[in-house]
Amino acid sequence: MRLIHVRTFLDLEEGKKVDPEEIVLKELDDEELAKIKYGILSHCWGNRKEEVQYKEMDALIRMGGPSRKKLRQRSGYHKILRSCEQAWKDGLAWLWVDTCCINKESSAELSEALNSMFRWYEDSERCYVFLHDLDAKILPTISNSEMFPDSSGWPRWFSRGWTLQELVAPSVVHFFNKDWRFIGDKKHRAQTISSITRVPSRVLIHGLDAHRHSAAQIMSWAADRKTTRTEDRAYSLMGLFGVHMPMLYGEGKNAFRRLQLEITRVTSDHSIFAWDRKDNGWSGSVLADDPSYFQDCHDIVNMEPDEYLAALKGVVPDNELSAANEESVLSFRGPVSLLSLLRFVPDIYPSGILQIHLLPIFWPGPNYSWGHSNVSASVSCIPRRKAEERLHFQNRRQGTCMRRVYSPLCVPEARSPEL
Questions:
Q1: What stretches of 161-316 show up as alpha helix (H) in DSSP?
Q2: pLDDT, tens digit, for every residue of 83-93?
């Protein structure tokens, strides 16, 4: 991890004499990082010509007066300067800024940085969020489309893909407006930030590990966020799921498919299949094309098998619940108010059987064709290892479309099933 030495940078800015052998950027290994505390900047990139790049920061001490003066006029330099000033006030001698601390000309270094970024933010002593388009002295509590027309009525930082992990990962996050006036921190403004981002306040206060969140829930937080590169919609989510992938810019939406497959390899959380294509037509895969398909999945929760059985009490007859085991295939022909099962096995992990939402709802066997007025569905059990198998739902009036898929470990909270 390469960091800015705050005091050296500020001495240069203040015109103090600096030893030419000193360096502004220093690379530290994990052992060295464990002995220091550092701040980290979270911001929206402006015009790339305005941002300070790695080579420019690395050459700052050796840079001549005219070149340095020109560099200091950039808005990106001003961000770094104010971040360093704030870090020094907070007693932090080191600072990380993505624009100048990564040599993006090295594909290997860029890949390593993107795969490590969640951990870097998580390990930081303090994260400084710079809201470049906010004049107010407090975080906004009401959407304002006139002031922020291109970011759903909120400061642009809240709409960007990479800033989701930069909000969730650090324990301490301080927000600053365009004048670098402190306007609140993550924990004390959790309710406001939650209403903007849909990230639960308990996550903002206690961290991602404080509660068992489903993959679909986490995906829903990113549903409306945007990135400059299509691939970054996937890459920006790797840390939230604890997965790692090589960067393959140019692969387009396939990056998000790879991300979902990586998630299925490291977890048995089948809510990853709980997306809803809505009116976007037919999908040829059980995997979603991008995070927007998870927009309505904020209330899908993980449940252990015993919790799931407890939730079915009063819905499924007790004698059928007590007979459930790995070998049984249960058939239930009465309507179920909340859930429909293709097959239930208490030990879900080796089998990976999915559960499908239908209306009216039945508890069928592992392969079952079902029809009702204008809707027909042909469904099959899908092992986790065969995530690419197709699952077909056909609506005779609306055409062919993909419908919700839930795992037996995931149930919707207080929501009626919909078609």
A1: 163-168, 190-197, 201-206, 215-221, 232-235, 238-241, 254-266, 305-312
A2: 999 999 999 99
